[in-house]
Amino acid sequence: MGKRHIFRIGKYDLKEEIGRGGMGIVYRGVDPYINREVAIKVANADNMHDSENANRYRRMFFNEARCAGILDHPNIVHVYDAGVEIKHCYIVMEFVKGAMSLKDYCRPDKLLPREKVIEIIFKCCKALDYAHNLGIIHRDIKPGNIMMTEDMDVKIVDFSIAQINKTDVTQVGGLMGSPLYMSTEQIKEEELTNQTDLYSLGVVMYELLTGMPPFSAENLSSLILKIINDEPPPMYVHKPDMPEVLELIVKRALRKNRQERYPRGIDFAADLVGAIKSLRHADRAIKENIRYEMLKKLDFFKGFFNSELSEVMRASTWVEYTANEPIINEGDIDDSFFIIVSGQVQVKKGDKPLVILKEGDCFGEMGFITKARRSASIVSSTDVTLLKISGTMIDRASAQCQIRFNKMFLKTLITRLSRTSDDLSKMQK
Hints:
By secondary structure, the chain is an alpha+beta fold. Helices cover 37% and strands 23% of the residues. 32% of the residues are buried.
């Protein structure tokens, strides 16, 4: 919670300070006419001491409000109002409750999941593409100017030094922005295009994925030389498991020659969609391979050829239960057969516990054969992973797979009946 301030500027009641930067102080406030919470940025008085500075900062300050008349996008913070009261310049913006900047997620110990990073950059690409199509270049894309809402949505903020490509607008000139995120043409004060913002967004993506900036140096001069002359180290230097598809996207975004970068935000976004599909496919393949290896270790599948095991997996679903969850209810009708991949379950008749089954054991044989009502309940004793095999789907497998499966199924059934017979004999004695 910030330091509390109770005063008024314009028609707005300022309640508390929530942020502070070079351009000014941001307060949480209220628009009393419509009872709406707002964020109010008040220009830093230290920047208004002499007329030259005052004019420059006033132009920068109201540049943001000018952009508001043009921009209306869900991933760009809305600006509602702006004004001057005595010596105070202020801008009234959308209040984003619980917002945190991406700076908090650019540390090696606080990295977001890669899919979330891709989603964030994708939304930024779409928002910037929207702004670029309306002739606005942000010029200061960095983690501190991208906010995360409470529900992990994205808001780009601070268009104070944005370039508006209209001849009737006086631009905020000079070398402006944050050097760590500047493109070569921005550092050289050359003509800027929308690709400058996309370069900066590439730097943000690099940081979010690795926790490190692509360039670092002890002083500004060394940093500028690196940005102009050096290639950034591949992300796998920091994260050895970095997927190649992400390396290629960031590499293109950070090209020195703007002609080799993404031409538009929508092109950057399209490659991110492709990356998500590629990573999800890779994750599924890895998960399937792990499951495949787990099944091969179970006694039930010893002797199965790889092709037959693959058919069984296609006829099955992988299900997981936490401890004390019902798996089968007595009286249910179901043709599924279960193999315990890990964990333990308990067989119960009514409220009476009968037996504990462990990894490699099977249950549901009679329902699988007869399609009759289940004669007992099964409850997980621990967290448990099961292979649930559908009788209907097994019937569609190849003849060779069905023969192999039925052979092991009958062997399991005979073992179970033999064990039950022995238990009854012991009880009678």
